[in-house]
Amino acid sequence: MEAGRGLNSSSIFKRTVFVTIVLGVLTFTGLIAWLAKVQLIDYEDYQRQAVSQQTRNEVITPARGTIYDANMNTLAVSVSSETVCISPADIETEEDLDLICEGLSALLGPEYGVTYDDVREKASNKKSYYAYIAKKVDEETANNVRTFITDYELGSKVFLVEDTSRYYPYGTLASQILGFTGTDNTGLYGIEYSMETTLQGTPGRIVSQKNARGTDLAIDYEQYYDAVDGDSIVLTIDAVIQGYLEGALEAALENAGASHASGIVMDVHNGQIKAMGTYPNFDPNDPFTIQDAAVSEELSLITNDEERKAAYNQALLELWTNGVITTTYEPGSVFKIITAAMALEESVTTLYDNSFYCGGAKSITIYDRKIGCWSDTPHGQETFLDGIKNSCNPVFIDVAGRLGGATFFKYFEAFGFTEKTGIELVGEGGGSSSLYHSETYLKTVPISLATSSFGQTFNVTPLQLITAISAAVNGGTLYEPLLIRQVIGEDGSIKEDHESIRVRQVVTEQTSKDLCYALEKVVSEGTGSNAYVKGYAVGGKTGTTVKTVESTDAQTLYISSFLGIAPTDDPQLAVLILVDEPTSYTHSGNMLAAPYVAEVLEKSLHYLGVDPIYSDDEYQTLDVTIPDFTGMSLKEVEEYMKLYDLNYRVEGEEEFVTSQMPVAGAIVPRSAEIVIYMGGSKPSYSVGVPNITGMTLSGIQRLLADSALYIRAVGNTSVNNLTLSVSQEPAYGEFVEAGSVITVYFVNDTSDEDIQ
Amino acid sequence: MDPNTHRNLYATAPQAPDAAPAATANVQRPHRRRRKGLIGRFGVRGFDVPYFMLTVMLMSVGLVMLFSASYSAAYYKYANATYFFTRQVLFAVAGFVIMFIVMVFPYQIYHRFAVPALLVSFALLVLVLFIGENYNNATRWISIGELFTIQPSEIAKAAVIISFSSFAVRMGKRMRSLLYGIVPFLLIIGMMAVLLMKEPHLSATVIIAVTGIVIIFIAGAKISHLAVIGAVAIALFAWVVFGLGYSIERINIWLDPYLDPKGDGYQILQSLYAIGSGGLFGLGLGQSRQKNLYLPEPYNDFIFAIICEELGYVGAVLIILLFAAFVLRGYYIALKARDNFGTLIAVGVTTQIAVQVFFNIGVVSGMLPVTGISLPFFSSGGTSLLILFAELGMVLAVSRQIPASRKG
Fold it and tell me: What is the mean pLDDT of residues A415-444?
């Protein structure tokens, strides 16, 4: 008998059927129904979230366009660099961690500031799949890291990410024009910022599948959308001229003990900006570091941390700012060029109109205000040309009165001072109606017209000023300043060609010619003498600005400026240099700015291949480099001397040259006498260098006439007897070999205008 | 084949010459007429072929899906894409062997194991608390050597089927009384539940409790008693869940997995993402994306999510229907069983599988709160697969003795 016999079979049957229905039918029906809800009704949300976590949507950064100068020298370029990263979540064992810390600190080391403990700390966030160890790693190091990864099979634990970074091959050169890019490779200042959309290109995308650790799956789909690289930009800037300008600005700043020196070089024929900038500047490769020692030192004196930080940021901001386009100032006497242009154009006077009278300082009363000339000594009766040469305020007050407020304003507007120039940079200043006197005001308030005539009581940017003056001297055509010459596609094709935009004819060619002549006289005979350049006829005008806002009772702050053009018979370049807050004994634009304008003009015109035309006197003072005559026959020496038009005398009577004075390679003025020794020995004694500073050239020449020293004069020595030597090389008291050359620097101490 | 075996099977073979009179006579007579005792019931002939075929089908589909679901994880975890698959194939082969061995023996001998199996289960359930391996905050496994682990709860599940069936049959009519029909069984379930909750292992507790109660229900326990007990059990369960806070978080996460999408809700969300991605027809076999380390252990409890993702709703329903057919065939065997013991054994095994499938798919699809419960035939796992096949062997053993008259 089975043990189960006692159970009620029919009850078992019924109950089993019941269980069958519940567990065999209802449960499965329930599951099928529920699954339908999840999979067929609610699925969209789940699907969307699944796809978003499963796919990697990787952005391919396009290569940022290059910035070239006018001669296709690279000013800014994107280079790819690599970032070394670790994935802490994948570093599972202590051995691996130790190996990675050890390996990376050894490979990257102090160069990238990576230590064992750094890596360990960055690896401590175990949930993270990404922690960077070193950025901008060079190629060799990156390859070493790569080898390290493969050697120790650290695949997902250590990896490299390619990144692009911006490189500025010229360092600080043109930094304020170029600006710089941030860590995300977008432009923050300058061209990099204003031309962002052109330079940045269109990012591409890779959509690929990944697993939960972010590793790509080999299988399945991958969609690739190409990145379009950014377009490149060709600037009108010429790196060489920019270099000349920046060198001059640095020297000007140092000479004047100024806070800033800034300048613009413009091609007057088309408004192209050849160079511009402010010194001190910054290195866009490292924009957050202050390079200038003086500025850093000043900052280090601030003891309060927070204040220092604020001051540091302020200082950085100043370094980044392209002041010549953003900041306005009262142009001072440089503006007299514009007033003169108006006067000549409107024929209210001529250059030789002798009807002007200067009664000296405060000689003119307009209502309750006394104004007058910068010079205490009255210029007396003078022509308009004299007035320009002397920078005589009463003359300009007079012509402004003859012009009247309406006409003055008409030209003020025509020269573009009432609007921004439209340069392709962000942050341009000037042109706002609060900065200048309205037409009505000029008509009704005579003092405003009087002061405006010599560049005071209104504000312009240096860029506006040089643009207007370029128009005044180029035959009368105002151009929009041009900074971007071309936009080039990634394939090298020219996408945009920016021609100079001619705005309007402001004055006639005759007016322009007369003006150039007058400006040349300012340099050759007047208040701008230090802008003189041998071989090029330079015209120009000095200016002094009182910084009325920044000045205090205790201290008046100035901007000394000079605007030069050359050559005056057919002006090519205009150069404006502003020396901000000079601390030297003078604030004369002729002393502080003109020599540097001259330097930029001379070098730039040479560089541009403009042939110099020397007067006879100039010709004699031109530098020549002495060759090695040793071993030559007398005939050969004679031929050479004739060919190069040099002075010489011969000592001794042997067949060949045995020695010479000065030595080969020395630079002397053409007029210097070269001594050729044919057998006879040259004197070999030492000569003490005398003190020859503070003297005129002729005085020095007399002093050294019988010594065995040669003189090489640098600077304007041709104007008048106020041109004195300011320094010499070698210094006073040194002993040099007979036949050595002493270089002497001259500056014309003609004082120019002051401000009342 | 051994001639002895032939003779032994003679009685159950449907085409046997003496099968015809048996149809009208006492259904149990032909067996006993041929040879007395259990010896005559050894053999392999006469097992339920549809049940066996369904087993083969489920296991085959299970292996294919396991391979698909596991290779990515296996590759990342063991650098060997076939790690889980190879193991599972070996266990499946071993499982079939065990199934055949178990099937050969007449199930009546299980009476002899009723008490020892229970004692061994208790011993292991106690032992695991002391020497068990802790994994994911639960102590459920005992390691044997390097490669094998056994889950005492799996053994306990099988033991409960055998012992409850045996006890119930032996109780006979006394099953209707509270003292005999309810109390002893409940004590066993209760003690096991206490031990299992120490691990803790909620899902095993639920499966054992449901299986045990279904067995005593079938065996004739009074419905009124069961109703009261059910009420008490639900109260106790509620107390454990809400009172002790054991699973309150799980309940909250179940109601809204987005409460903690990166933590406790992560697994169920990833599972739902997988199911949702599948849609009607799925991404195609092997095309699951969620198995790429998103869904934790896709080769284990959550394998059904990968099935849904790859085979879509259509494929998932087909597999559910396969399970349903399998379960229904199990109950069919129970209904047709030669004796009550066979019925209870088949009901126990089938119920256990049905409950497990229901809970697993319910959890994976977010119908039920998350609890670690594997999907028979599909989830990777050695012990559970071997025990499952042993239990299937028991059902087949029951099927072998179905009288010819009852065979459909």
Answer: 87
Distance from CA of B270 to the nearest CA of A (A): 8
User: Who among A8, A34, A44 is closest to B365 (CB)?
Assistant: A34
pLDDT in tens, B285-323: 887 878 777 788 888 889 999 999 999 999 999 999 999
Query: CA separation (Å) from A85 to A88, A109, A111?
Result: 9, 15, 16
Residue from B361, B373, B375, B406 to probe the interface with A (highest A Cβ count within 10 Å): B361
Q: Which pLDDT does position A605 carry in this prediction?
A: 92
Q: Do A24 and B362 touch (CB under 8 A)?
A: no
Which of B331, B338, B350 to probe by mutation at the A interface, max A CB count within 10 Å? B331
CB atoms within 10 A of CB A542: 33
Residue A126's identity, in one-letter code, is: K
ipTM for the complex?
0.85
Contact yes or no for A19 and B218 at CB 8 A: yes
Residue A88 DSSP code: G
Q: Do A19 and B172 count as a contact with CB atoms less than 8 A apart?
A: no
Q: What's the mean pLDDT in B355-370?
A: 90
pLDDT in tens, A627-668: 888 888 888 888 888 888 888 888 888 888 888 888 788 888
Partner B contacted by A22 (CB < 8 A):
no
Helices A393-414 and A446-453: crossing angle in degrees, nearest 10, is 90
* Average pLDDT across chain A, whole number: 84
* Distance, CA of A375 to CA of B364 (rounded, Å): 98
- Residues ≥6 apart with Cβ < 8 Å to B2: none
Mark yes or no for CB contact A46/B355 under 8 Å: no
Q: Answer whether A19 sits within 8 Å of B293, measured CB to CB.
A: no
Question: What is the pLDDT confidence band of residue B17, given thresholds at 50, 70 and 90?
Answer: very low
- Comparing CA positions, the residue from A748, A600, A546 lying closest to residue A262 is A600
Specify the pLDDT at position B328: 95
CATH for A58-172+201-234 (3.30.360.10, 3.40.190.10, 3.90.1310.10, 3.30.70.1790): 3.90.1310.10
What percent of chain A is predicted at pLDDT more than 90? Answer: 23
Which strand (E) or helix (H) includes residue A578?
strand A573-580
**What count of other Cβ atoms lies within 10 Å of the Cβ of residue B135?**
10
B214 CB within 8 Å of a chain A CB:
yes
Q: Is the pLDDT of residue A276 over 90?
A: yes
Which structure tokens are listed for A268? 């007057």
Residue pair A343/A403 in contact (Cβ under 8 Å)? The answer is: yes
- Tens of pLDDT along A154-164? 777 888 877 77
In this structure, what are the phi and psi dihedrals at residue B348, rounded to the nearest 5 degrees? -60, -50
A631 vs A654: CA distance, rounded Å: 11
Distance between A86 CA and the closest CA of chain B, angstroms: 18
Model confidence band, residue B38 (pLDDT cutoffs 50, 70, 90): low
**CA angle (B393 as vertex; B390, B395 as ends), nearest 5:** 120
Residue A465 has pLDDT above 80, yes or no: yes
Q: State residue B208's pLDDT score.
A: 92
d(CA A108, CA A92): 22
Is residue A36 less than 8 Å (CB to CB) from chain B? yes
A2 touches chain B (CB under 8 A): yes
Starting at the edge strand found earlier in the chain, the sheet holding A741-748 runs A710-714, A741-748, A723-729
Query: What is the least distance, in Å, from the CA of A88 to any CA of chain B?
Result: 17
| A24, A40, A209 ranked by CB distance to B331: nearest | A24
A44 and chain B: CB distance < 8 Å anywhere?
yes
Distances (CA, A) of B47 to B82, B111, B393, B407: 34, 21, 10, 11
Tell me how many residue pairs between chain A and chain B have CB atoms under 8 A apart.
179
